[in-house]
Amino acid sequence: MKYFKTLSGLALGLALSASTALAGEIVLNSDQTDPAPKKAMEELIADFQKANPGITIKWNNFDHEGYKSAIRNFLTADAPDVAAWYAGNRMAPFVKAGLFEDVSDVWEANGLNDQLKSAAASMTMDGKKWGVPYTYYQWGIYYNKDVYKKAGVTEPKNWAEFVSNCEKFKAMEIDCLTTGSKALWPIAGIFDYINMRTNGYEFHMELTAGKVKWTDPKVKAAFAEWAKIVPYTTANHAAIDWQDAAALIVQGKAANYVMGNFSVATFKQGGMTNDNLGFLVFPEITPGIPRAEEAPTDTFHIPSAAKNKEDARKFLAFVASPDVQTKMNATLGQLPVNNKSTAADDPFIKAGFEELSSAYALAQFFDRDAPADMAKAGMEGFQEFMIKPENIDAILERLQKVADKVYK
Amino acid sequence: MFPKPIGQVRPWLRTAYKCALPIALIVWLLPLIGIAVTSIRPAADLAVGNYFGMPSGFAGVENYTAVFKNSSIGYYMLNSFKVTIPTVIGAVGLSCMTGFALAVYKFKSNLLVFFMFVAGNFVPFQILAIPVRDLTLQLGMYNTTMGLVMFHVAFQTGFCTLFMRNFIKGLPFALIESARVDGVSEFRIFWHIVMPLMRPAIAALSVLIFTFIWNDYFWATIMAQSADVRPVTAGMNELKGQWKVAWELITAASIIAALPPVAMFFLMQKHFIAGLTLGATKG
Amino acid sequence: MSHRTQASFWKKNQRAMAPWLFLAPGMIMFLIYVIYPICQSVWISFYEWDGLGPKTWIGGQNYVDLLDDDSFYTSLKNNIIWLVLYLLAIPAGLAVALLLNQTVTGIRLYKSLFFFPFVISQVVVGLIFTWFYAPDFGLLPNIIKGLTGSEVAVLADERYATLGIIAAGLWPQTAYCMILYLTGLNNISSEQVEAARMDNASGWSMLWNIIIPQLRPATFIALVVTVIGALRSFDLVSIMTAGGPYGSTRVLSYFMYEQSLSEYGTAMGYGAAIAVVLFAIMLVFISLFIVRMLSQERNS
User: Fold this and answer.
1) Which of A21, A257, A281, B3 is deepest in the core (most CB within 10 A)?
2) Interchain CB contacts (distance < 8 Å): B and C
């Protein structure tokens, strides 16, 4: 790769000196190794190259987990022209370290301030825009309608109903809620929702930003709500991955699953259809609190050290445009950010669109809203809580100790 | 000989021993046999919970082709070779020289230099990780095969020097002395007298280093991150994340990834064991 | 300067110069990539640094924080468990070696196949044992279920996870010790054994009084590689549990990786401090090894 880059850099240099009209190559680093995202990227790259003859994209596809540590290195040492990343707090360290390029001009020139309005806040720091969002997806509760029928329960209107449904599932030896916490992150979704429904969006954001303490009684109140459903949650969740838990929904051994919309593909692979797979907005806990939702947004950025920023800007404008987002998100099975795009004709995407467009506010997800080291400690705490709820005080004290260090 | 040769014991004990051997071997290799069988099971077997019974059919060809088709394991294997082979050449080459210098010459800091190599060879990787990664970044070799090779060569030189030095110490020193008397230069002594005698040591070290580097996981994880550089050990971890429950694929990929060092071992067994057991008999 | 004086200078001094010329390439590489980074890590451990921005000198604060970090104690405790249980590889290796030290047909193949696990990478060993322990369909939980009627998810249960990983590590490590002992047994003086047989020594007393003392070199090497292997344990933890459930299988090496190099960690100074502690522990064993080698050198 190195040699390739030196060579292509050389070629680019030659091209520029010969004639500036000759466009160059964009090096693009991203982490789309799963089948659907990979296909979406391949289509995107092909379409961009067709629309911009003379510009070629050299795509370095990284492993999803490895990417998160790799980006820190390549941004400083060996910057690509475009890098995939996430909105919100997760991009803050790079913006602060001056590693991302200000792309407010791309927003300005392409009318994105209007078209990408919903995500503008999460892309703005110090009054400037630092990248463009291209997709987001909803979280919520996915459930097995057949199991609901079998247990004779209906969609819960609020938390109390959800909990009382759990007892009915328990009587039939069905896990009311399933999850797989081997990789930790799935249970962060449960915490986010319970905390946002118990204490509201602002409190949740203050907590993930280190402005309130983990030992705050309100945090404990959220865990008390969580404790109500712990006995009804799949017992060996720590031993399984999220796909294993999805299989339990498919097999009818579990009823509900707090998950992101990407899981629909997995449920359907297992044989579920639009007829027996249901989707619920997470029910209300504290009455009257404005409803916030989880909607992680994926983005593209230009590193400050990029060599071909001119063409990189063209790429950002391209990926922000309505038609491109329509097509890309149809492949991804997710929601376009651009409000002039059309969402795919799919009940779950439609439901997500409704859920999110009527929400009071959107959170990015625990491991994107909180700094990475806090997120890790937090998720371990959640896992321990789900296995040993009685340890909650010790867990919260430990989390506060981590927070004292992380946010100082 | 200890224990007493089995030929000299009572017949029933001899028979018992001969029966016990294969049973012990099967128990010992049970996990391995398990994954080998899983890797040729049809996916349907796993779906219906047939994990241990006879496979309902032979799906080895399908599974192994699927591994190559659905993943970059072919590239990962190639990357592993690209890291491993230059490292073997580099580390063995450098240590022929360092080992020669430390075994043949008497100079003041000889033991000090030798123990630096020996001690360095035992340090935990973690104490090197942050600075080595920074250095590699600065040299522009981060996420390249070359970056991994440079580090591996340097680090393995420690173990190789220990090995080579002790090996050369065991060679007849009189050969070197008489050559010196004849006025042969030091470089000619190294090249024409000592090097030819070092062949078994070079062979032993080569297979050992090949196995060590092929199996390295820590450095592969922190220094190689894109699919076109990542060696197969780090690649396996990624595939495990991707395939999760498709055990027939994970097990097949595991077997593919384990093959080169296993082949190396069976082909060069004598050298391999000679290398590993250096020092187990004397001293 | 005539060519002649140069040549004679070289001639006169080549015995003194040659070793350094031979050493130079290897030593320079080793100094740059091993010795100097050790010093750098110690130095970084006194800073707060996220790997991107400037470094801030904070003195011993990282070490103070370490002493107040539950994860550190968990890791340390697990390292000790690893160290102690890993030593089982030595008697186990000896036992297998004694079993195989015979001359029946096909014994060579048996020896190779018993040694086989050592050749496989720890990543694959980790995957094999993950499969072996997997809840629902794993071999071990099924055996346990058959015996006791209840299921155990070895790697998800705080009580068993570390033990499960160590057991996986013992598999190749026992093979390694076995091969060391087989070589050692090969070189045992048969006269002594026969003489002892004349004196009616046999079985345990023979093993204890005659054989094991003669195996001392092999035991020493086995001890060194096992201790180092136990403290280096990273691959298996990373593959099998990634430190989980809730951090209970962390060891120092993995803890350092998590803090500084993983997707969730950027605390370079803190990670360096963990590495320094691990290094200090290993230094005890490295020193023992060096002291022994030194006394050998002096005797020879």
Assistant:
1) A257
2) 290
